[in-house]
Amino acid sequence: MSTSHLAKSIIDSRNFTPRANELWPVHIVKAAAIFEAIEKLKLGPSGSNGRREGLVTHPASREPGLGLAPSTSVAYGVLLPGEKTQPRRSNASSFSLGLEGKGLVYVNNRVFSLSKWDGWNTPGMHVEVLENTSDTPFVYVTYSNAPFLQKLEVFYEEYNPPKNTQATARSENTEQSSKRSRAKEVAGNAKVVGDTGAMLLPYEHLIDPDFVESHALHWRWDDVAPHLGLVRSLSQGYNGRPLWCLYNPATGSRNGTTFSFFATITSVAPNFIGPAHRHVSAAINLILEGDGWSIVNGERVDWEMGDIMLSAPGWSPHGHAIGPEGAIILTVQDHPLHIGAESLIWQEDLKNGPIITLGAQAGFETNISQFRGGE
Protein backbone atom coordinates (compact mmCIF):
# COMPACT_ATOMS: atom_id res chain seq x y z
CA MET A 1 0.00 0.00 0.00
CA SER A 2 1.36 3.42 -0.93
CA THR A 3 2.19 6.11 1.61
CA SER A 4 -0.54 8.32 0.17
CA HIS A 5 -3.18 5.63 0.74
CA LEU A 6 -1.97 5.11 4.29
CA ALA A 7 -2.21 8.82 4.96
CA LYS A 8 -5.85 8.85 3.84
CA SER A 9 -6.62 6.02 6.26
CA ILE A 10 -5.40 7.93 9.31
CA ILE A 11 -7.39 10.92 10.58
CA ASP A 12 -5.71 13.35 12.93
CA SER A 13 -8.35 13.67 15.63
CA ARG A 14 -7.08 17.11 16.56
CA ASN A 15 -8.50 18.40 13.28
CA PHE A 16 -11.57 16.16 13.15
CA THR A 17 -15.04 17.30 14.13
CA PRO A 18 -17.08 14.31 15.31
CA ARG A 19 -20.44 13.84 13.64
CA ALA A 20 -23.36 14.92 15.81
CA ASN A 21 -26.15 12.41 16.41
CA GLU A 22 -29.13 12.92 14.10
CA LEU A 23 -32.16 11.64 15.96
CA TRP A 24 -34.89 10.16 13.81
CA PRO A 25 -38.21 11.97 14.31
CA VAL A 26 -41.24 10.23 15.75
CA HIS A 27 -43.09 8.38 13.00
CA ILE A 28 -46.54 6.82 12.96
CA VAL A 29 -48.20 4.59 10.38
CA LYS A 30 -51.97 4.64 10.68
CA ALA A 31 -54.16 1.57 10.89
CA ALA A 32 -55.94 2.36 7.62
CA ALA A 33 -52.66 2.30 5.68
CA ILE A 34 -51.65 -0.97 7.33
CA PHE A 35 -55.02 -2.55 6.54
CA GLU A 36 -54.74 -1.45 2.92
CA ALA A 37 -51.23 -2.94 2.64
CA ILE A 38 -52.41 -6.23 4.16
CA GLU A 39 -55.27 -6.42 1.65
CA LYS A 40 -52.77 -5.93 -1.19
CA LEU A 41 -50.57 -8.71 0.21
CA LYS A 42 -53.50 -11.09 -0.12
CA LEU A 43 -53.63 -10.59 -3.90
CA GLY A 44 -51.71 -12.64 -6.43
CA PRO A 45 -49.25 -15.46 -5.73
CA SER A 46 -46.90 -15.53 -2.77
CA GLY A 47 -43.18 -14.92 -3.21
CA SER A 48 -40.79 -17.71 -4.16
CA ASN A 49 -40.09 -18.21 -0.45
CA GLY A 50 -43.80 -18.75 0.23
CA ARG A 51 -44.14 -15.48 2.11
CA ARG A 52 -46.38 -12.46 1.61
CA GLU A 53 -44.72 -9.75 3.69
CA GLY A 54 -44.42 -5.98 3.57
CA LEU A 55 -41.83 -3.89 5.43
CA VAL A 56 -42.83 -0.84 7.45
CA THR A 57 -39.97 1.65 7.11
CA HIS A 58 -39.12 5.01 8.57
CA PRO A 59 -38.59 7.89 6.09
CA ALA A 60 -35.08 8.35 7.52
CA SER A 61 -34.15 4.70 7.00
CA ARG A 62 -31.54 3.99 4.35
CA GLU A 63 -29.94 0.89 2.86
CA PRO A 64 -28.37 -1.27 4.01
CA GLY A 65 -30.86 -2.31 6.64
CA LEU A 66 -34.27 -0.71 6.17
CA GLY A 67 -36.33 -0.54 9.33
CA LEU A 68 -38.81 1.36 11.44
CA ALA A 69 -35.90 1.98 13.82
CA PRO A 70 -32.17 1.79 12.99
CA SER A 71 -31.79 -1.70 14.46
CA THR A 72 -35.31 -3.01 13.97
CA SER A 73 -37.34 -4.09 10.96
CA VAL A 74 -41.10 -4.51 11.14
CA ALA A 75 -42.86 -6.71 8.59
CA TYR A 76 -46.56 -7.46 8.27
CA GLY A 77 -47.26 -10.86 6.78
CA VAL A 78 -50.22 -12.82 5.44
CA LEU A 79 -50.67 -16.54 4.87
CA LEU A 80 -53.74 -17.52 2.90
CA PRO A 81 -55.54 -20.79 3.70
CA GLY A 82 -53.38 -23.76 2.71
CA GLU A 83 -50.18 -21.74 2.27
CA LYS A 84 -46.87 -22.73 3.83
CA THR A 85 -43.57 -20.87 3.75
CA GLN A 86 -40.23 -22.28 2.70
CA PRO A 87 -37.97 -23.29 5.62
CA ARG A 88 -35.79 -20.28 6.42
CA ARG A 89 -32.96 -19.56 8.80
CA SER A 90 -30.78 -16.51 9.32
CA ASN A 91 -28.42 -15.12 11.91
CA ALA A 92 -31.08 -12.53 12.78
CA SER A 93 -33.44 -13.19 15.68
CA SER A 94 -37.07 -12.15 15.71
CA PHE A 95 -40.26 -11.78 17.70
CA SER A 96 -43.66 -12.18 16.06
CA LEU A 97 -47.28 -11.64 17.06
CA GLY A 98 -50.40 -13.08 15.48
CA LEU A 99 -52.93 -10.39 14.58
CA GLU A 100 -55.77 -12.18 12.84
CA GLY A 101 -56.80 -15.78 12.13
CA LYS A 102 -54.94 -18.94 13.09
CA GLY A 103 -51.70 -20.56 11.99
CA LEU A 104 -48.87 -22.90 12.87
CA VAL A 105 -45.21 -22.09 13.32
CA TYR A 106 -42.44 -24.67 13.26
CA VAL A 107 -39.14 -23.53 14.79
CA ASN A 108 -36.57 -26.33 14.64
CA ASN A 109 -38.18 -29.16 16.61
CA ARG A 110 -40.97 -27.09 18.18
CA VAL A 111 -44.48 -26.48 16.85
CA PHE A 112 -46.87 -23.80 18.14
CA SER A 113 -50.55 -23.34 17.29
CA LEU A 114 -51.12 -19.61 16.92
CA SER A 115 -54.17 -17.44 17.50
CA LYS A 116 -54.81 -13.72 17.79
CA TRP A 117 -52.17 -11.91 19.90
CA ASP A 118 -50.11 -15.05 20.47
CA GLY A 119 -46.39 -14.22 20.42
CA TRP A 120 -43.34 -16.32 19.61
CA ASN A 121 -39.61 -15.81 19.18
CA THR A 122 -37.33 -17.33 16.56
CA PRO A 123 -33.68 -17.47 17.71
CA GLY A 124 -30.86 -16.83 15.28
CA MET A 125 -30.01 -19.75 12.94
CA HIS A 126 -33.18 -21.62 13.91
CA VAL A 127 -35.24 -22.89 10.97
CA GLU A 128 -38.72 -21.34 10.83
CA VAL A 129 -41.75 -22.44 8.79
CA LEU A 130 -45.20 -20.83 8.91
CA GLU A 131 -48.35 -22.65 7.82
CA ASN A 132 -52.02 -21.81 7.58
CA THR A 133 -54.22 -24.88 7.94
CA SER A 134 -57.39 -22.87 8.60
CA ASP A 135 -59.97 -21.53 6.14
CA THR A 136 -59.25 -17.81 6.81
CA PRO A 137 -56.10 -15.68 6.31
CA PHE A 138 -53.50 -15.65 9.05
CA VAL A 139 -52.02 -12.17 9.62
CA TYR A 140 -48.93 -11.54 11.75
CA VAL A 141 -46.25 -8.94 12.43
CA THR A 142 -42.55 -9.71 12.86
CA TYR A 143 -39.81 -7.62 14.47
CA SER A 144 -36.25 -8.55 13.49
CA ASN A 145 -32.73 -7.28 14.22
CA ALA A 146 -31.78 -7.85 10.56
CA PRO A 147 -31.17 -4.11 9.89
CA PHE A 148 -28.48 -4.06 12.57
CA LEU A 149 -26.70 -7.00 10.93
CA GLN A 150 -27.19 -5.58 7.44
CA LYS A 151 -25.58 -2.30 8.48
CA LEU A 152 -22.59 -4.32 9.70
CA GLU A 153 -22.64 -6.23 6.36
CA VAL A 154 -22.87 -9.57 8.21
CA PHE A 155 -26.49 -10.59 7.59
CA TYR A 156 -26.82 -14.27 6.60
CA GLU A 157 -29.99 -15.93 5.30
CA GLU A 158 -30.78 -19.18 3.53
CA TYR A 159 -33.85 -21.14 2.51
CA ASN A 160 -34.34 -24.91 2.67
CA PRO A 161 -31.17 -25.52 4.71
CA PRO A 162 -29.98 -29.11 5.33
CA LYS A 163 -31.99 -30.78 8.06
CA ASN A 164 -28.88 -31.47 10.13
CA THR A 165 -28.60 -27.72 10.81
CA GLN A 166 -31.50 -27.81 13.25
CA ALA A 167 -31.40 -27.82 17.04
CA THR A 168 -31.15 -31.60 17.30
CA ALA A 169 -27.66 -31.37 15.83
CA ARG A 170 -26.60 -28.98 18.57
CA SER A 171 -28.08 -31.28 21.21
CA GLU A 172 -26.20 -34.25 19.77
CA ASN A 173 -22.96 -32.26 19.72
CA THR A 174 -23.53 -31.24 23.32
CA GLU A 175 -24.12 -34.84 24.34
CA GLN A 176 -21.00 -36.02 22.52
CA SER A 177 -18.87 -33.26 23.99
CA SER A 178 -19.96 -34.25 27.49
CA LYS A 179 -18.28 -37.64 26.95
CA ARG A 180 -14.87 -36.18 26.14
CA SER A 181 -12.60 -33.46 27.37
CA ARG A 182 -13.29 -30.12 25.77
CA ALA A 183 -10.39 -28.29 24.16
CA LYS A 184 -10.91 -25.39 26.54
CA GLU A 185 -10.39 -27.72 29.49
CA VAL A 186 -7.16 -29.05 28.01
CA ALA A 187 -5.99 -25.49 27.34
CA GLY A 188 -6.57 -24.54 30.95
CA ASN A 189 -8.29 -21.73 32.76
CA ALA A 190 -7.82 -18.00 32.41
CA LYS A 191 -4.63 -16.55 33.89
CA VAL A 192 -4.71 -13.56 36.20
CA VAL A 193 -2.30 -10.82 35.21
CA GLY A 194 -1.49 -7.93 37.51
CA ASP A 195 -3.58 -6.86 40.48
CA THR A 196 -6.60 -5.20 38.80
CA GLY A 197 -8.56 -8.34 37.91
CA ALA A 198 -7.31 -8.44 34.31
CA MET A 199 -6.99 -11.93 32.82
CA LEU A 200 -5.70 -13.84 29.79
CA LEU A 201 -7.95 -16.38 28.08
CA PRO A 202 -6.75 -19.18 25.76
CA TYR A 203 -8.02 -19.32 22.18
CA GLU A 204 -9.94 -22.54 22.88
CA HIS A 205 -12.31 -20.62 25.15
CA LEU A 206 -13.14 -18.25 22.32
CA ILE A 207 -14.21 -20.96 19.89
CA ASP A 208 -16.09 -23.12 22.41
CA PRO A 209 -17.76 -20.77 24.90
CA ASP A 210 -20.22 -21.98 27.49
CA PHE A 211 -23.74 -21.23 26.28
CA VAL A 212 -27.34 -21.17 27.41
CA GLU A 213 -29.56 -23.02 24.95
CA SER A 214 -31.86 -20.52 23.24
CA HIS A 215 -35.26 -22.00 22.40
CA ALA A 216 -38.29 -20.80 20.54
CA LEU A 217 -40.95 -19.89 23.11
CA HIS A 218 -44.69 -19.32 22.83
CA TRP A 219 -46.59 -16.66 24.75
CA ARG A 220 -50.24 -17.71 24.30
CA TRP A 221 -52.58 -14.79 24.71
CA ASP A 222 -54.94 -17.03 26.69
CA ASP A 223 -52.08 -17.53 29.19
CA VAL A 224 -50.95 -13.89 29.21
CA ALA A 225 -54.33 -12.15 29.42
CA PRO A 226 -55.28 -13.33 32.96
CA HIS A 227 -52.24 -11.48 34.34
CA LEU A 228 -53.05 -8.11 32.77
CA GLY A 229 -55.47 -7.07 35.52
CA LEU A 230 -52.57 -6.80 37.97
CA VAL A 231 -50.76 -4.14 35.91
CA ARG A 232 -53.97 -2.44 34.82
CA SER A 233 -54.77 -1.83 38.50
CA LEU A 234 -51.74 0.50 38.75
CA SER A 235 -53.53 3.82 38.77
CA GLN A 236 -52.46 7.40 38.25
CA GLY A 237 -49.60 8.25 40.58
CA TYR A 238 -47.61 5.12 39.76
CA ASN A 239 -44.31 6.39 38.37
CA GLY A 240 -43.42 3.31 36.35
CA ARG A 241 -45.09 1.66 33.37
CA PRO A 242 -47.97 -0.84 33.83
CA LEU A 243 -46.66 -3.73 31.75
CA TRP A 244 -45.39 -7.29 31.60
CA CYS A 245 -42.26 -8.23 29.67
CA LEU A 246 -42.57 -11.37 27.54
CA TYR A 247 -39.40 -12.74 29.13
CA ASN A 248 -37.08 -15.33 27.64
CA PRO A 249 -34.97 -16.73 30.52
CA ALA A 250 -32.11 -17.52 28.14
CA THR A 251 -31.46 -13.77 27.91
CA GLY A 252 -30.66 -13.56 31.63
CA SER A 253 -30.01 -10.06 32.94
CA ARG A 254 -30.63 -8.59 29.49
CA ASN A 255 -34.33 -9.04 30.34
CA GLY A 256 -35.20 -9.79 26.75
CA THR A 257 -37.70 -11.65 24.63
CA THR A 258 -34.75 -12.14 22.29
CA PHE A 259 -31.13 -11.15 22.88
CA SER A 260 -31.79 -7.96 20.89
CA PHE A 261 -35.37 -7.02 21.88
CA PHE A 262 -37.80 -7.07 24.68
CA ALA A 263 -41.50 -7.20 23.87
CA THR A 264 -43.85 -5.88 26.52
CA ILE A 265 -47.61 -5.91 26.87
CA THR A 266 -48.92 -2.74 28.48
CA SER A 267 -52.45 -2.86 29.88
CA VAL A 268 -53.25 0.55 31.21
CA ALA A 269 -56.26 2.13 32.88
CA PRO A 270 -58.15 5.09 31.38
CA ASN A 271 -56.57 8.55 31.57
CA PHE A 272 -53.20 7.29 32.81
CA ILE A 273 -50.32 9.69 32.15
CA GLY A 274 -46.84 8.22 32.29
CA PRO A 275 -43.68 10.09 33.25
CA ALA A 276 -41.55 11.78 30.59
CA HIS A 277 -38.17 10.09 30.25
CA ARG A 278 -35.56 9.11 27.66
CA HIS A 279 -33.25 6.22 26.78
CA VAL A 280 -31.01 5.28 23.87
CA SER A 281 -33.01 2.15 23.09
CA ALA A 282 -35.58 2.70 20.33
CA ALA A 283 -39.20 1.83 21.16
CA ILE A 284 -41.89 0.81 18.67
CA ASN A 285 -45.50 0.76 19.85
CA LEU A 286 -48.29 -1.24 18.24
CA ILE A 287 -51.70 -0.19 19.58
CA LEU A 288 -53.76 -3.34 20.10
CA GLU A 289 -56.67 -1.59 21.84
CA GLY A 290 -57.59 1.93 22.90
CA ASP A 291 -56.19 5.34 22.04
CA GLY A 292 -54.15 8.18 23.45
CA TRP A 293 -51.25 10.43 22.56
CA SER A 294 -47.51 10.79 22.99
CA ILE A 295 -45.24 13.80 23.32
CA VAL A 296 -41.91 13.08 21.59
CA ASN A 297 -39.28 15.83 21.43
CA GLY A 298 -42.06 18.32 22.08
CA GLU A 299 -44.27 17.00 19.25
CA ARG A 300 -47.71 15.59 20.04
CA VAL A 301 -48.76 12.46 18.13
CA ASP A 302 -52.27 11.04 18.56
CA TRP A 303 -52.70 7.31 18.10
CA GLU A 304 -55.49 4.73 18.07
CA MET A 305 -56.08 1.01 17.70
CA GLY A 306 -54.11 -0.56 14.86
CA ASP A 307 -51.52 2.22 14.53
CA ILE A 308 -47.80 1.44 14.78
CA MET A 309 -45.33 4.10 15.83
CA LEU A 310 -41.65 4.70 16.47
CA SER A 311 -42.49 6.42 19.74
CA ALA A 312 -39.02 6.70 21.24
CA PRO A 313 -36.25 7.38 18.73
CA GLY A 314 -32.93 6.96 20.56
CA TRP A 315 -32.42 9.52 23.35
CA SER A 316 -35.53 11.53 22.45
CA PRO A 317 -37.50 12.81 25.47
CA HIS A 318 -40.94 11.22 25.39
CA GLY A 319 -44.01 10.42 27.45
CA HIS A 320 -47.38 8.79 26.84
CA ALA A 321 -50.97 9.52 27.88
CA ILE A 322 -53.92 7.15 27.68
CA GLY A 323 -57.43 8.02 26.52
CA PRO A 324 -60.71 7.44 28.38
CA GLU A 325 -61.05 3.81 27.30
CA GLY A 326 -57.65 2.61 28.50
CA ALA A 327 -55.30 0.77 26.17
CA ILE A 328 -53.40 -2.44 25.42
CA ILE A 329 -50.08 -1.84 23.67
CA LEU A 330 -47.28 -4.06 22.37
CA THR A 331 -43.90 -2.34 22.70
CA VAL A 332 -40.74 -3.72 21.14
CA GLN A 333 -37.49 -2.08 22.17
CA ASP A 334 -33.81 -2.91 21.47
CA HIS A 335 -33.07 -2.67 25.19
CA PRO A 336 -31.20 -6.04 25.51
CA LEU A 337 -28.94 -5.20 22.56
CA HIS A 338 -27.77 -2.06 24.39
CA ILE A 339 -27.37 -3.86 27.72
CA GLY A 340 -25.01 -6.32 26.02
CA ALA A 341 -23.03 -3.41 24.56
CA GLU A 342 -23.00 -1.46 27.88
CA SER A 343 -24.61 1.43 25.99
CA LEU A 344 -28.09 1.55 27.58
CA ILE A 345 -28.08 5.00 29.12
CA TRP A 346 -31.43 5.99 30.64
CA GLN A 347 -32.78 9.11 32.30
CA GLU A 348 -36.01 8.54 34.21
CA ASP A 349 -36.35 12.11 35.54
CA LEU A 350 -35.66 14.63 32.79
CA LYS A 351 -35.38 17.62 35.13
CA ASN A 352 -33.08 16.45 37.88
CA GLY A 353 -32.49 12.74 37.45
CA PRO A 354 -29.16 11.03 36.85
CA ILE A 355 -28.21 9.35 33.58
CA ILE A 356 -27.62 5.69 34.42
CA THR A 357 -26.13 2.88 32.35
CA LEU A 358 -28.71 0.15 32.95
CA GLY A 359 -27.18 -3.29 33.20
CA ALA A 360 -23.85 -1.84 34.35
CA GLN A 361 -25.16 0.25 37.27
CA ALA A 362 -27.93 -0.14 39.81
CA GLY A 363 -31.16 0.99 38.20
CA PHE A 364 -34.11 3.11 39.27
CA GLU A 365 -36.76 2.47 41.87
CA THR A 366 -40.49 2.99 41.44
CA ASN A 367 -43.25 3.56 44.01
CA ILE A 368 -44.74 0.12 43.34
CA SER A 369 -44.92 -0.54 47.11
CA GLN A 370 -47.66 2.08 47.43
CA PHE A 371 -49.85 0.04 45.11
CA ARG A 372 -49.02 -3.53 46.14
CA GLY A 373 -48.19 -3.16 49.77
CA GLY A 374 -44.50 -3.84 49.16
CA GLU A 375 -45.14 -7.33 47.76
Would you write up a description of this structure?
The structure is a single chain. By secondary structure, this protein is of the alpha+beta class. It has 2 domains: about 25-160, Jelly Rolls (Sandwich); about 220-360, Jelly Rolls. It contains 10 helices and 23 strands. Strands 1, 15, 16, 18, 19, 20 and 21 form a 7-stranded antiparallel sheet that branches. Strands 2-3-10-5-8-14 form a 6-stranded antiparallel sheet. A 3-stranded antiparallel sheet has the order 7-6-9, with no helix packed on it. Strand 22 and strand 23 (about 355) form a beta hairpin. The chain is globular, with a radius of gyration of 23 Å. The N and C termini lie far apart (about 65 Å). About 35% of the residues are buried. The model is unreliable at about 165-170 (pLDDT under 50).
Q: Which term fits the overall shape?
A: globular
Q: Under the CATH scheme, which architecture of the largest domain would be assigned?
A: Sandwich
Distance between the termini: 66 Å
Q: What is the count of distinct domains?
A: 2
- Ranges where pLDDT stays below 50 over 5 or more residues in a row are 167-172
**Rounded to an integer, what's the Rg over CA atoms?**
23 Å
Quick one: CATH class of the largest domain?
A: Mainly Beta
Q: What share of the residues lie within helices?
A: 10-25%
Give the helix/strand class: alpha+beta
CATH topology of the largest domain: Jelly Rolls
Number of helices in the DSSP assignment = 10
Assigned CATH superfamily of the largest domain: Jelly Rolls
Largest sheet at a glance?
A: 7 strands, antiparallel
- Relative strand content: 25-35%
Number of strands: 23
Mean pLDDT: 93
